[in-house]
């Protein structure tokens, strides 16, 4: 249920902007502790402790022992380059997360100079008037000025989970009793479970109760993702195998060539080659930057693991009002027993036949409504020549019965001067009005037939009724009165213009869209048809009462073919989420109210509304739609799939490139050849591999078919057998080329240094080939080269320039232990390296010619 109640603070002004500014200066921002960002030093320390750095330092030390000053120096210098890269990667992640935190930071509704303003909570100051309602988190310690039916969950402070009833100080006289004093105060960080209030801020930031105990509410939860756990397992395994291999290499080398230090060096080079440090880095960066990219599409990620589920969602359960529709209502039709009026946009007249319908609808709405239906009704009233505001200026509301779960109607009791009895005005769901008017079955059917006609046109329908009661005799429950039906109101709430296309896209992407609404079934069905949720004639509906009566088995059966759930209470959403999950679906669910929180938590992806949602719903959700727009969810799904694809591409590349590096380090030791790769070469390679992973693959555009393939199986591992096999095969291809180059150079008596230079050129070329081919697992190199990637030219260009320098500049050549080579030979070796990935291109071409093209997975 949308929020129907909010505090009004009518007649109050609040602070002036200048006063607020001055107090903010004086007291500082209303926050407990500035969100901690890692300092540069801390980041540097974290980086220095990484195994790669330790290996580099160890290798540098051995060179020192061997007396190779230059090598030692270059390796130690390269430590700084590697640290620099790691720090910049960490900073990038931190910045992305900080930007998300900013977006997620809480906001508060305050009254300043008589205007309602939604401001960041950190700008709330002493003396501000807070307007609070059900589902809000209290932004600062404050004293109640007005409270209606208010209760707060203060468990955060007191540990007591039963909500505390609150009353305004002027309702209950100020007291010395601290227990009672607390009843008229609200505390920062606690939650309003029901009611609404106006409260004046007494303390902010560290001076609040929660501030004094130094607790802060974190706005973004990092959480570990399944991918991270899986990657950790793989990293541990690879590290173990790597360590074993290094030991073997060191010992074999030392024993066969009788040189322990050189053996150690060979072992260290292999360890550096095998260290799978890129895997966790890739995940952290891709998820954090991914979340930042998603936030630019107006979707805030509160819980990073949700990004993984995004590409796997199979069912999207969405609210109708405000998510599929614009939540901008206008009254379109009025009907009473005396006639019907079709309103146009600038309706200026009101026939007598329907005058009372409008009058009572206004009298049963709040003066300063939050509810869009009530706003539309008041807005109509203000356009008409009959000035209801003036004619009722001296009427006084003496009782109010808000919408409740059991009675979908709002009722107000008015005391009118000169009238013997109080006037009772009521509007609500037609079924509720029929009940209040005690209609016979036949009358009721006639009414519902009229309602159906309005709803068939997609209008939301409210019934309006009237009653009267002697002064001071208003009952506890409006059902104790007998009402008289006055008429019906039909309101239009147009579909958001982007919704139909977005739903179509979901269907193509194998994602079912299901509407869950509190609205009338016929209205819901009409909107579902307009949105293209189901083909005409195939909209199948389950209503809340039907759901109530249904057993789990029937529900699970019917849920597969139902696309609209109407007149559903928020509490029933949890049951729906569970039923979908039991049917094997991965569920994304939207919600905005307090009662939606359990369903949002239970869903694989809970999505809250940023604009109309409550704090409770936002806190329970994984994602927040900042603009409440359905099509943003679809954008997020597209990005989620892209992020997963890119992680997989990066992982495949990392696996692949480590095969030739490890192989060319290992083979010479076992075959008794001169060593091909020394630690310096590995560092050089790392300088290409690192940015290739974190910049090139992260920024890769989505595959053309990203929204035309079915959702990913959530149980499918990242390191699936197919991904791993293909990646290793790519690596074996590259290794074959590099080994062939090295072996033939040695065989033709070119000497160790020339052979090393040739093998290195082949290795760099095959590395670039692997980067290029892994950019897309579905489109061929020719196509993917046309897809822009800002980092790619830098990485490729940088690698080529650095390779050229090591081959052409004598000092560098010496350092790398290369012999001079003619350009033609370099090009030949590079061609061999590059050609080693072409088989994968052929595989892609073959696949895209097949009847069911798609990425190779
Ligand atoms: P959705 O679930 O898509 O937001 P909804 O707004 O109709 O749809 P609820 O907020 O649960 O869902 O409202 C349920 C019903 O209660 C409405 O269809 C309407 O008949 C009645 N209702 C809601 N708000 C008011 C109101 N302010 N005054 C009178 N009746 C209301």
Instruction: Name the shape in a single word.
Output: elongated
* Average predicted local confidence, pLDDT: 86
Name the poorly predicted regions: 1-6, 849-854
How many β strands by DSSP? 22
Name the strands of the widest sheet in spatial order: 8-22-21-20-9-17-19-18
Q: What is the radius of gyration? A: 34 Å
Strand content: 15-25%
Q: What molecules are bound to this protein?
A: adenosine-5'-triphosphate
Briefly note the structural class of the backbone: alpha+beta
Number of helices: 32
Distance between the termini: 43 Å
> What about the largest sheet?
8 strands, mixed
What does this structure look like?
With 857 residues, the protein is α+β, with helices and mostly antiparallel strands. The chain is built from 32 helices and 22 strands. The strands form three sheets. The protein has an eight-stranded mixed sheet, sandwiched between helices. Helix 9 packs parallel to helix 25, helix 25 (679-697) runs antiparallel to helix 29 (791-808) and helix 26 (721-747) packs antiparallel against helix 31. The chain is elongated and about 115 Å long. It binds adenosine-5'-triphosphate (ATP).
Key terms:
alpha+beta, 7-stranded antiparallel β-sheet, 32 helices, 22 strands, disordered N terminus, binds adenosine-5'-triphosphate, 8-stranded mixed β-sheet, single chain, 857 residues
Describe the secondary-structure layout:
Blueprint: H1 17-27, H2 40-48, H3 51-66, H4 69-104, E1 107-112, E2 115-120, E3 129-133, E4 141-153, H5 155-158, E5 164-166, H6 178-183, E6 185-186, E7 191-203, H7 209-212, H8 226-257, H9 260-274, H10 278-296, E8 299-301, H11 306-310, E9 315-319, E10 330-336, E11 339-342, H12 352-363, H13 372-383, H14 388-391, E12 396-401, E13 409-415, E14 422-428, H15 430-436, H16 441-456, E15 460-469, E16 484-492, H17 499-508, E17 512-516, H18 521-531, E18 541-543, H19 544-549, H20 552-558, E19 564-566, H21 570-582, E20 587-591, H22 597-602, E21 605-609, H23 615-620, E22 623-625, H24 630-671, H25 679-697, H26 721-747, H27 752-774, H28 781-786, H29 791-808, H30 810-815, H31 823-835, H32 838-848
Parallel strand pairs: 9-17, 9-20, 17-19, 18-19, 20-21, 21-22
Antiparallel strand pairs: 1-2, 1-3, 3-7, 4-5, 4-6, 4-7, 8-22, 10-11, 10-16, 12-13, 13-14, 14-15, 15-16
Bound molecules: adenosine-5'-triphosphate.
